[in-house]
Amino acid sequence: FLLVFLFTIIGNSMGGASFNPTGTVAFYFLGHGSDTLISMALRFPAQAFGAAGGAMAIAELINPKYRHMIGGPSLKVDLHTGAAAELVLTFVITFAVLCIFLKGPRSDLLKIWLLAMSTVTLVVLGSAYTGPSMNPANAFGWAYLNNWHNTWDQFYVYWICPFTGAILAAWIFRAIFPPPVKQKKS
To answer: For residue range 85-102, what is the model confidence (pLDDT) as tens digits?
Structure first.
Protein backbone atom coordinates (compact mmCIF):
# COMPACT_ATOMS: atom_id res chain seq x y z
CA PHE A 1 0.00 0.00 0.00
CA LEU A 2 2.75 2.42 0.97
CA LEU A 3 4.73 1.73 -2.21
CA VAL A 4 1.69 2.30 -4.44
CA PHE A 5 0.99 5.55 -2.59
CA LEU A 6 4.63 6.67 -2.92
CA PHE A 7 4.86 5.76 -6.63
CA THR A 8 1.61 7.60 -7.31
CA ILE A 9 2.92 10.78 -5.69
CA ILE A 10 6.25 10.55 -7.52
CA GLY A 11 4.61 9.70 -10.85
CA ASN A 12 2.10 12.54 -10.58
CA SER A 13 4.81 15.03 -9.68
CA MET A 14 6.67 14.06 -12.86
CA GLY A 15 3.65 14.69 -15.07
CA GLY A 16 2.26 11.18 -14.88
CA ALA A 17 3.88 7.80 -14.99
CA SER A 18 2.59 4.53 -16.33
CA PHE A 19 3.90 1.24 -15.04
CA ASN A 20 1.42 -1.00 -16.80
CA PRO A 21 0.84 -1.00 -20.58
CA THR A 22 -2.63 -2.51 -20.18
CA GLY A 23 -3.80 0.53 -18.21
CA THR A 24 -2.49 2.84 -20.90
CA VAL A 25 -4.36 0.87 -23.57
CA ALA A 26 -7.59 0.84 -21.57
CA PHE A 27 -7.54 4.60 -21.06
CA TYR A 28 -6.66 5.07 -24.74
CA PHE A 29 -9.70 3.02 -25.80
CA LEU A 30 -11.86 5.15 -23.51
CA GLY A 31 -10.48 8.36 -24.98
CA HIS A 32 -8.89 9.41 -21.68
CA GLY A 33 -5.29 10.48 -21.34
CA SER A 34 -2.88 12.00 -23.78
CA ASP A 35 -1.33 8.86 -25.26
CA THR A 36 -1.37 8.28 -29.01
CA LEU A 37 -0.53 5.13 -30.93
CA ILE A 38 2.94 6.57 -31.54
CA SER A 39 3.55 7.46 -27.89
CA MET A 40 2.39 3.97 -26.85
CA ALA A 41 4.70 2.41 -29.46
CA LEU A 42 7.56 4.21 -27.68
CA ARG A 43 6.27 3.78 -24.14
CA PHE A 44 5.68 0.00 -24.18
CA PRO A 45 9.24 -1.03 -25.10
CA ALA A 46 10.55 1.48 -22.56
CA GLN A 47 8.33 -0.09 -19.89
CA ALA A 48 9.53 -3.58 -20.83
CA PHE A 49 13.20 -2.52 -20.75
CA GLY A 50 12.63 -0.72 -17.45
CA ALA A 51 11.03 -3.83 -15.98
CA ALA A 52 13.94 -5.98 -17.18
CA GLY A 53 16.39 -3.52 -15.62
CA GLY A 54 14.41 -3.52 -12.40
CA ALA A 55 14.29 -7.32 -12.24
CA MET A 56 18.04 -7.52 -12.87
CA ALA A 57 18.69 -4.90 -10.17
CA ILE A 58 16.54 -6.78 -7.66
CA ALA A 59 18.29 -10.06 -8.46
CA GLU A 60 21.68 -8.40 -8.08
CA LEU A 61 20.95 -6.48 -4.89
CA ILE A 62 18.88 -8.98 -2.92
CA ASN A 63 20.58 -10.90 -0.16
CA PRO A 64 21.71 -14.25 -1.66
CA LYS A 65 19.88 -16.27 1.00
CA TYR A 66 16.57 -14.79 -0.27
CA ARG A 67 17.18 -15.17 -4.03
CA HIS A 68 15.15 -18.37 -4.17
CA MET A 69 12.10 -16.32 -3.14
CA ILE A 70 12.05 -14.12 -6.25
CA GLY A 71 11.26 -15.03 -9.81
CA GLY A 72 8.19 -13.23 -11.03
CA PRO A 73 5.09 -14.69 -12.62
CA SER A 74 5.22 -18.17 -14.12
CA LEU A 75 2.75 -20.68 -15.51
CA LYS A 76 1.54 -23.15 -12.93
CA VAL A 77 -1.19 -24.63 -15.14
CA ASP A 78 -1.50 -25.57 -18.81
CA LEU A 79 -0.98 -22.86 -21.42
CA HIS A 80 -4.62 -22.09 -22.26
CA THR A 81 -5.79 -22.12 -18.63
CA GLY A 82 -2.99 -19.70 -17.78
CA ALA A 83 -3.92 -17.50 -20.73
CA ALA A 84 -7.57 -17.46 -19.67
CA ALA A 85 -6.54 -16.63 -16.10
CA GLU A 86 -4.41 -13.66 -17.18
CA LEU A 87 -7.19 -12.41 -19.47
CA VAL A 88 -9.81 -12.59 -16.69
CA LEU A 89 -7.53 -11.20 -13.97
CA THR A 90 -6.42 -8.31 -16.18
CA PHE A 91 -10.02 -7.64 -17.18
CA VAL A 92 -11.06 -7.46 -13.52
CA ILE A 93 -8.16 -5.25 -12.36
CA THR A 94 -8.58 -2.94 -15.36
CA PHE A 95 -12.32 -2.64 -14.81
CA ALA A 96 -11.65 -1.96 -11.12
CA VAL A 97 -9.09 0.74 -12.00
CA LEU A 98 -11.53 2.41 -14.38
CA CYS A 99 -14.34 2.33 -11.80
CA ILE A 100 -12.10 3.53 -8.97
CA PHE A 101 -10.43 6.37 -10.85
CA LEU A 102 -13.22 7.52 -13.16
CA LYS A 103 -16.37 6.82 -11.12
CA GLY A 104 -15.06 6.17 -7.62
CA PRO A 105 -14.42 8.25 -4.53
CA ARG A 106 -12.86 11.70 -4.65
CA SER A 107 -10.26 10.94 -2.01
CA ASP A 108 -6.90 10.03 -3.56
CA LEU A 109 -5.98 8.07 -0.44
CA LEU A 110 -9.16 5.99 -0.69
CA LYS A 111 -8.59 5.42 -4.42
CA ILE A 112 -5.07 4.14 -3.75
CA TRP A 113 -6.30 1.92 -0.92
CA LEU A 114 -9.05 0.45 -3.14
CA LEU A 115 -6.53 -0.16 -5.93
CA ALA A 116 -4.07 -1.83 -3.55
CA MET A 117 -6.76 -4.08 -2.07
CA SER A 118 -8.05 -5.02 -5.53
CA THR A 119 -4.55 -5.86 -6.70
CA VAL A 120 -3.67 -7.94 -3.65
CA THR A 121 -6.97 -9.83 -3.88
CA LEU A 122 -6.40 -10.68 -7.55
CA VAL A 123 -2.77 -11.67 -6.96
CA VAL A 124 -3.88 -14.09 -4.24
CA LEU A 125 -6.70 -15.47 -6.41
CA GLY A 126 -4.41 -15.89 -9.43
CA SER A 127 -1.36 -17.21 -7.62
CA ALA A 128 -2.21 -20.83 -8.40
CA TYR A 129 -2.48 -20.10 -12.14
CA THR A 130 0.10 -17.66 -13.49
CA GLY A 131 1.81 -15.87 -10.70
CA PRO A 132 -0.14 -13.59 -11.67
CA SER A 133 1.18 -10.57 -13.52
CA MET A 134 -1.69 -8.53 -15.00
CA ASN A 135 1.13 -6.37 -16.36
CA PRO A 136 2.99 -7.33 -19.56
CA ALA A 137 6.01 -5.16 -18.78
CA ASN A 138 6.44 -6.71 -15.33
CA ALA A 139 6.09 -10.21 -16.77
CA PHE A 140 8.66 -9.41 -19.45
CA GLY A 141 11.16 -8.14 -16.88
CA TRP A 142 11.09 -11.37 -14.90
CA ALA A 143 10.95 -13.50 -18.04
CA TYR A 144 14.03 -11.71 -19.37
CA LEU A 145 15.86 -12.40 -16.14
CA ASN A 146 14.97 -16.10 -16.42
CA ASN A 147 15.59 -16.28 -20.21
CA TRP A 148 11.91 -16.97 -20.93
CA HIS A 149 11.22 -13.62 -22.60
CA ASN A 150 11.39 -14.86 -26.19
CA THR A 151 8.91 -17.73 -26.03
CA TRP A 152 5.44 -18.02 -27.49
CA ASP A 153 4.05 -19.01 -24.08
CA GLN A 154 5.28 -15.77 -22.50
CA PHE A 155 3.93 -13.64 -25.35
CA TYR A 156 0.56 -15.41 -25.43
CA VAL A 157 -0.11 -15.59 -21.68
CA TYR A 158 1.50 -12.36 -20.50
CA TRP A 159 1.06 -9.99 -23.46
CA ILE A 160 -1.82 -10.98 -25.77
CA CYS A 161 -4.27 -12.04 -23.07
CA PRO A 162 -3.71 -9.10 -20.69
CA PHE A 163 -4.12 -6.60 -23.54
CA THR A 164 -7.29 -8.41 -24.62
CA GLY A 165 -8.63 -8.30 -21.06
CA ALA A 166 -7.85 -4.60 -20.73
CA ILE A 167 -9.50 -3.68 -24.03
CA LEU A 168 -12.59 -5.74 -23.14
CA ALA A 169 -12.75 -4.00 -19.75
CA ALA A 170 -12.60 -0.59 -21.45
CA TRP A 171 -15.34 -1.51 -23.93
CA ILE A 172 -17.62 -2.89 -21.21
CA PHE A 173 -16.92 0.12 -18.97
CA ARG A 174 -17.89 2.40 -21.85
CA ALA A 175 -21.08 0.37 -22.46
CA ILE A 176 -22.07 0.64 -18.80
CA PHE A 177 -20.92 4.26 -18.36
CA PRO A 178 -21.28 5.95 -21.76
CA PRO A 179 -19.70 9.38 -22.10
CA PRO A 180 -22.14 12.26 -21.72
CA VAL A 181 -23.75 13.41 -24.94
CA LYS A 182 -22.74 16.95 -25.81
CA GLN A 183 -25.72 19.14 -26.57
CA LYS A 184 -25.45 21.36 -29.63
CA LYS A 185 -26.35 24.97 -29.07
CA SER A 186 -28.98 26.21 -31.48
So the answer is: 999 999 999 999 999 999
Q: What is the DSSP letter of 51?
A: H
Residue 183 covered by a domain: no
Residue type at position 55: A
**Angle between the 136-145 and 21-30 helix axes, to the nearest 10 degrees?**
160
What is the domain extent for residue 50? 20-176
Number of domains in the chain: 1
Indicate the pLDDT class of residue 67, thresholds 50, 70 and 90: confident
* Intra-chain end-to-end CA distance of the chain, in Å: 50
**Average pLDDT of the residues of the chain:** 88
6 vs 128, more confident: 128
| pLDDT tens-digit readout, 110-124 | 998 999 999 999 999
Q: What is the dihedral of CA 71, 128, 148, 152, to 10 degrees?
A: -160
Q: Cβ contacts of residue 148 below 8 Å, gap of 6+?
A: 74, 154
CATH number for 63: 1.20.1080.10
Predicted model pTM: 0.84
Q: Which of 29, 50, 54, 28 is nearest to 39 (CA)?
A: 28
CA–CA separation, 65 and 51 (whole Å): 23
Report the candidate in 136, 100, 132, 133 with the shortest Cα–Cα distance to residue 116: 100
**Nearest Cα to 31, choosing from 98, 90, 76?**
98
